[in-house]
Amino acid sequence: MLCERATDRPPGLEGLPVEFRYCAADGLRAAVRGAQVLMLWDFFSTAVRDVWAEAGSLEWIHVTAAGVDTLLFDELRDSAVVVTNAHGVFDRPIAEYVLGAVIAHAKDSLRSYDLQRGRRWQHRETRSVLGARALVVGTGAIGRATARLLRAAGLEVRGAGRVARGDDPDFGTIVASSNLAAEVGWADHVVLAAPLTTATRGLVDATVLAAMRPGSHLVNVARGPIVDETALLAALGSGRIAATLDVFGTEPLPPEHPLWDAPNVTITAHMSGDVIGWRDALAAQFATNVRRWLAGEPLLNIVDKKLGYIPTGDR
Predict the structure, then answer these.
(1) Domain D-isomer specific 2-hydroxyacid dehydrogenase NAD-binding: where (predicted)?
(2) What is this structure's pTM?
(3) Enclosing domain of residue 118
(4) Residues 113 and 60 in one domain
């Protein structure tokens, strides 16, 4: 059980008939020897790669996150070790975060906060989300939950994934994310909910940002490296677009990073899925899979290690 600190332990696992070894990254080398299962409670750790030579008994690694990009490396991909993730736990909370970001942008909340701090009374008209357009990049479970909630609020929604197609039950139309620059101009809100893979790293570059319509809004609840942050800073500085950012190339975002002072941006601390009780949900999900593993039953939420995500649909 890899934790950020050895004393920071998942709740509710005490009754499981297995031997747990709790450690932080500096103790993983010793703890992983002879272990059959590794649970990454510290889900952004990259320590597994460093101790892989000691992990010869591993059968299964569980990551308590939706994204597994920080875990995967070539030796793990080529091994027989099964990887599972926290598929399903964060879908609705992240969708709610996105809806909140969309509404806050439409209602010009940043400007309202600035006026309040300056004790200035300034009446304004804002926009309705009814009939606004949202392009959700990433058609997996989180993207689909987001699409359903945005559509329920009255937005017109499209998806962007690996394969373009029509008549999707959640998105209606799915366009090819490889042609994103030609598609983002349709949207008032571009929502990034895709896994970080070789195909999505740097996907939102200067060309894509320049193709976004003036006044539109970028929401990133995926991974920071999907966006070229230098190009994003330029786009924000020009006043053409706004952004709500929950993820960044470097986390925590350094205090000196220019994004803190960029105009038209809302920054949160990688917390879009972290609603009250999320740790309990993650631990309960893992406990369910442990019971299945002990019973010899198929594990839930198995990640395709070559793709880097659970292939529930073309993303």
Answers:
(1) 100-272
(2) 0.96
(3) 91-267
(4) no
